[in-house]
Write a structure and sequence with these properties.
The radius of gyration is 13 Å and the shape is globular. The chain is an all-alpha fold and about 100 residues long. Helix 2 crosses helix 3, helix 4 runs antiparallel to helix 5 and helix 5 packs antiparallel against helix 6. It contains six helices and no strands. It has a single domain, classed as Orthogonal Bundle (434 Repressor (Amino-terminal Domain)), CATH 1.10.260. The longest helix has 17 residues.
Length: about 100
């Protein structure tokens, strides 16, 4: 799974959405959404913004950084990617240990 695919999957699950419901909300085909979440496809930035806009609490700019990090692979992009993932863990209720709220 790609980092952006993982971020989308975690946000979708936290929202209680199915992949099909997310795909319909964007709109994309369900298979394309599965491919993005599994890291088999890299969404263009416009598609990523549409996905992010489904979730009102998601920072779309942060997701764009994840996308750039997956394409660039540079140290700066890797640092930004780590920061974004840490922010999403906090937003999802996970602490430093990765455990969610009980």
């Amino acid at each position: 799974m790609s980092k952006i695919g993982d971020a989308i999957t975690r946000r979708r699950r936290a929202s209680g959405m199915t992949t099909k419901a997310l795909a319909e909300a964007v709109p994309l085909s369900q298979q394309y959404m599965v491919d993005i979440q599994m890291g088999r496809r890299c969404p263009p930035s416009g598609t990523l913004l549409k996905i992010a806009n489904v979730f009102p609490d998601v920072d779309a700019a942060a997701w764009l950084w994840l996308l750039l990090a997956s394409v660039w692979g540079s140290p700066i992009a890797d640092l930004m990617q780590a920061w974004v993932l840490a922010e999403h863990r906090v937003a999802d209720g996970a602490g430093a240990t990765g455990e969610g709220r009980r």
